[in-house]
Amino acid sequence: MMMRRQIVMAAAVVLLAAGSVAAGQASSVDAGDASAFMGTWVLTMETPRGSNEQTVVVRDEDGKVAARLEGGRGGAIDITDVAKDAESLVLTFARNFQGNDVSIVLTLSLDGDTMNATQDINDGMFSMTGSGKKQ
Prior knowledge:
There is one protein chain. With about 140 residues, this protein is mostly beta strands. The chain has one domain: Beta Barrel (Lipocalin). It has one helix and nine strands. It has one helix at about 1-15; strands spanning about 40-45, 50-60, 65-70, 75-80, 80-85, 90-95, 100-110, 115-120, 125-135. The protein has a nine-stranded antiparallel sheet. Residues about 1-25 have low confidence and may be disordered.
C-alpha cells in the first residue's frame, strides 16, 4: 500500500510537467472582480520530490478572467475555466498523463503581496501547496 501511494504521488508530480489537454468551460468571473489577481505570478510549489516553480499569468480576456500556467516539460496551458470562491480564484483544467486525462483544480488566494496556491489533483488523490510573488 505504501509503495502504491509513493508511485501515485510521483506520478502526480510528473503530470504537472506533462502535456496539456483542452481547458474546459468559460470563465464565470468578471475581470473587474479579480483585479488584485491580474498579472504574472511565480509560484514555488512543494512536492514530495522537492520544489517546483510555476508561473501563473492571470489576465483579462474579453472582460472575463483567464489564466496561463507555465513551467514543466509539457509546456504551457491556457485556462478559461475560472470561478471565484469567496476571496479565492479557482482554476480548473486537465493534463494528459500517460494517455489519461487528469483533472486539476488550482486555488489561488492573496495574502498581501503573496499569492498562496493549492493544487488538487484527480479529486483529492494528491495535493500540494505553494506560494509566490507577483513579477
